[in-house]
Amino acid sequence: MKRLLLLRHAQTHDAARGQADIDRTLTRRGVQDAQAMADLLRRKGIIPNILLCSTATRTQQTAAIFGEILNVPTDNIHKHEAFYHASSTIFLDALYALEDTVDTALIVAHNPSISLFASEISNATLAIDMRPASMVGLTFSTDKWTSIDQASRTLFLIENPTSING
Predict the structure, then answer these.
(1) Which pLDDT score is estimated for 24?
(2) Taking the CA of residue 65 as centre, how many other CA atoms within 13 Å lie in the half-sphere pointing to its CB?
(3) What is the spatial distance between Cα 156 and Cα 139, in angstroms, rounded to a whole number?
(4) What dihedral do alpha carbons 107, 112, 116, 117 form, nearest 10°?
């Protein structure tokens, strides 16, 4: 069985005058929301073997928070430039490239790409709209990452900071 977690980066500051979008950082609330969502996984015993994120500052910050709380070694946090404006194919290609010894992977990315991918990979009948720090979890009945798109799947988690913090 393979388990995939999809996470939209946490809340960010608006871009400062002259600041590139890719350099935007998390707000204090964004940091707190990322910590809460990572703690939710820790409490549920869901620990990813690997974290994949875009090269944007906000996704790297979000991934680092998850890595710290979930004790994921920094060597297991991989940055993918193509995740910044990714298509579902780009996400799938990154998953196909994973070693089959990886049981649980977490992707940290941006909207609209991550919401679209969550909707497509889950075979959802309604679109999944991921707000900042929202997370979707799926399991796939396969032992090979290259087979996840053909495998039966179960959507086991849809959470956001509001749903866990009230």
Answers:
(1) 87
(2) 26
(3) 7
(4) -20
Show Cβ contacts of residue 24 under 8 Å, excluding neighbours closer than 6 positions.
12, 13, 14, 15, 56, 57, 58
Beta strands per DSSP E along the chain: 2-8, 50-54, 77-80, 104-109, 135-140, 153-159
Predicted structure pTM score: 0.95
Q: Which of 15, 13, 24, 14 is nearest to 54 (CA)?
A: 24
At 166 the pLDDT is 59
pLDDT of residue 135 exceeding 80, the answer is: yes
Q: Rounded CA gap, 115 and 99, in Å?
A: 25
Query: Judging by DSSP bridges, how do beta strands 77-80 and 135-140 pair with one another?
Result: unpaired
Partners of 153 in the beta sheet? 140
| Full set of structural domains in the chain with CATH | 2-165 (3.40.50.1240)
User: Per-residue pLDDT averaged across 62-75, rounded?
Assistant: 97
**Residue 113: which of 89, 138, 79, 93 has the closest Cα?**
89
